[in-house]
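Record 1 of the preview.
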Amino acid sequence: TSKNIKSNFKRIKLWVSKSSYIIEKMVGQISKKKKIIIEFSNIEINKEISDDLFIFRVPKGVYVYNNPIGW
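->
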């Protein structure tokens, strides 16, 4: 089931490694003058990590808002 999700990005470009097919860079265009650049480095494939790393613990004094999109 697809969802109708609003995004602030006008365009997203991905740089993918020709040998590993791993995303190395992402550029998200928000407006003519604003963009977000994310570059990935030191990528390790199938590295074992603890499940605890994915448990979100709210820091003291922080309020968490509900996602208005609902996903």
